[in-house]
Amino acid sequence: MSTASVGELVSQPYKYGFVTDIETEKIAKGLSEDVVRLISAKKEEPAFLLDFRLRAYRQWLQMDEPDWAGLGYPAIDYQNIIYYAAPKQQDKKASLDEVDPKLLETFDKLGIPLSEQKRLSNVAVDAVFDSVSIATTYKEKLAEHGVIFCSISEAVKEHPELIEKYLGTVVPCNDNYFAALNSAVFSDGSFVFIPRGVECPMELSTYFRINSGDTGQFERTLIVAEERASVSYLEGCTAPMFDTNQLHAAVVELVALDDASIKYSTVQNWYAGDENGVGGIYNFVTKRGQCRGDRSRISWTQVETGSAITWKYPSCVLQGADSVGEFYSVALTNNRQQADTGTKMIHVGPRTRSTIVSKGISAGHSSNSYRGLVQIGPKAVGARNFSQCDSMLIGDQAAANTYPYIRSQQSDADIEHEASTCRISEDQLFYLQSRGIGFEQAVSMMVSGFCRDVFHQLPMEFAAEADKLLALKLEGSVG
Amino acid sequence: MIRPDAPVLLEIRDLHASVADQPILHGVNLTLRAGEIHAVMGRNGSGKSTLSKVLAGHPAYTVTGGSVRYRGEDLLALDPEQRARIGLFLGFQYPVEIPGVSNLEFLRVATNARRQEGGEEELDTFAFEDLVNEKLQVVQMDPAFLERSVNEGFSGGEKKRNEILQMALLEPVVAILDETDSGLDIDALRIVSGGVNHLAGPDNATLLITHYQRLLDAITPDYVHVMAHGRILRTGGKELALELEQRGYDWVDAEPAVLEAV
Fold first, then answer.
1. What is the pLDDT of residue B261?
2. A436 and B81: CB-CB below 8 Å?
3. Domain range spanning residue B185?
4. CB of B75 within 8 A of CB of B32?
5. Residue from the list B99, B102, B166 with its beta carbon closest to the beta carbon of A435
6. CATH number at residue B78
7. Does residue B1 sit within a domain?
8. Does residue B136 sit within a domain?
9. Do A222 and A193 touch, CB atoms closer than 8 A?
């Protein structure tokens, strides 16, 4: 096979690898206290936020990059990264018509039309391009219900009291190395606020697009659901193909008060690097939800298919009595991808319950680990956890690991853990083939069957997409 | 039904095959014409199941010599899925379980793959449900089985009935049934053999691979072949099966072969 056709084959599955040629405003490479101040100044932030950033930065200087995850990658040079880049755009746009058409076109190509006529009918979208929010749809309609959905920069300006009240209260600025870095330099992200008693009338979604090759990506998302409020939120991510690695260190914080419910879904499809592991996103993300109120509920669903490296443990702190945490995950790795992902369920309040369903699929030469913690505190009387961690291996070069950690300080807690590993067997494939089903379709039927419990948790509009995405990712990985 | 002028559907000539470098088939010859039911009998290890796997294209088996023509076409050159689409069917001795894949969806995809090959239009979910409900009668299967994962948690008899259901949907030209009777109780055997008889017609051929006479009490073969050491050593009518039942397989080895192929 000629080099050209091999190249075509390999790049074919990743159809989001294009770069948009757009003028951006960037600051010089490197990180220092001055850079932190510069970012804050550019965003015209209030003093409390600059203070937050500086505290984070000073803490970060004292911290070491974590190395317990068993991921292998060359040392990241934090001075060789640009910490602020934004598409040049004079002022905040009053309407979408004024947004650079190139940006609208980019999101069109990604399947996220933003313009009035074409937008998704029941999903409000915040489009984030190189860590800067460029547009949010359906803002007015949501405002009628009292729902705030906007970029976090905008929220800082328009609702500073809410930001000051909640930012950093779930993931403190010194929580971990990458969270501290994010707290120091975050550029944008989404803010969602659902007031007391409101059920958000539509799906909310943020689409993160990395465009730039040498810029770090540091988004910050904050979602607050007040008493009896509920919301379903989805994030999608893609990036162009570069042969260098880009650092992505995001922080997501969720707060659920009494009887509130937040459902957070992710379809992560950052560029994963090529078949030799060249290029791809380093994805070091801290996501945590706090069930602060009684009977509150936070549910994470993630479909992780991209990134060269994934380091991500969406967690729930179950503080309120009878609160519920859920984690449903599909992580697929192929070629040289490495994923170390899982969750933490911290049971603090009485009768708190958590469910973990994790499905790892490893193909090619990839490595895929589930790492999870179930912790039951001394006051968590009658706490319950159920965990199920299944791994599927495709081919004989891939690795799957499961690291479940259980710590209980409650004698009557009920903790169940099930784990399984399977390999797609030649006989299963042959069985499907002998009924006229092609090899690749047979594999994708089995993979989506394996993931079904998780896909059922995704908002309907995205379940089919996720299925297709997995099939694409596996193209050519077998046989 | 033997008709000397009926078209040849499958023609196996001097077929040699091995698995993991171990030769198993040492020159099999066999011809199936439209309308015929053949039974291949033999001891464990005689090569019967290997023959069925080789015909269906299992990747673990390597053909080392000979040819197989399916309606004149070189069958061995085709992928397993292509063989199925043009009308070759293998009913498995041990149907595998495929957790997570819905039986209904599996049957629909398989049926449509076969239909598309024949230039028929794909059936949508509703049209397919009508068809599958009709075919369920052939094997007296409960529609509840459609909602489950492929063969998962099915009893031995339910798995075999599911095989015949697939056969009924795919309407094969050549059906190979590998030890379909193994593990069946009397009732299941009656249902399964009833299904096979119902599906056998003047335009297709059936190859039954079996150990025991009892299946042949329910399905009357036109020819009985005895396999040993990777070859067909003897061929006769249905009375040959009865003779085997009475005398066992030893005499086949002892007496020189009279007839090898039809």
1. 43
2. yes
3. 8-96+173-254
4. no
5. B166
6. 3.40.50.300
7. no
8. no
9. no
pLDDT at A245 over 60: yes
DSSP codes joined into one string, A114-147: -STTTS-TTEEEEEEETTEEEEETTHHHHHHTT-
Question: Over the stretch B40-89, which tens digit does the pLDDT of each residue have?
Answer: 999 888 999 999 999 999 999 999 999 999 999 999 999 999 999 999 99
Domain of residue A460, residue span = 426-479
Q: How far apart are CA B158 and CA B178, in angstroms?
A: 16
**Could you tell me if B88 and B173 are in contact, meaning their C-beta atoms sit under 8 angstroms apart?**
yes
CB contact under 8 A, B101 and A430: no
pLDDT at A86 over 80: no
Q: Which residues contact B13 (CB under 8 A, 6 or more apart)?
A: B29, B66, B67, B68, B69
Give the C-alpha separation, B90 to B166, whole Å.
10
Please count the structural domains in chain B: 1
Please report whether residue B130 resides in a domain. no
Subunit contact A434:B81, Cβ cutoff 8 A: yes
- In chain B the first and final C-alpha atoms are separated, in Å, by 14
Kindly provide the ipTM of the predicted complex, given to two decimals: 0.94
Assess B135–A contact: CB distance below 8 Å, yes or no. Answer: no
SS3 A361: strand
pLDDT tens for residues A382-415?
999 999 999 998 888 888 999 999 999 988 899 9
The stretches of A222-274 forming alpha helices (DSSP H) are none
Asked whether residue B187 is domain-assigned, the answer is yes
Residue type, B238: K
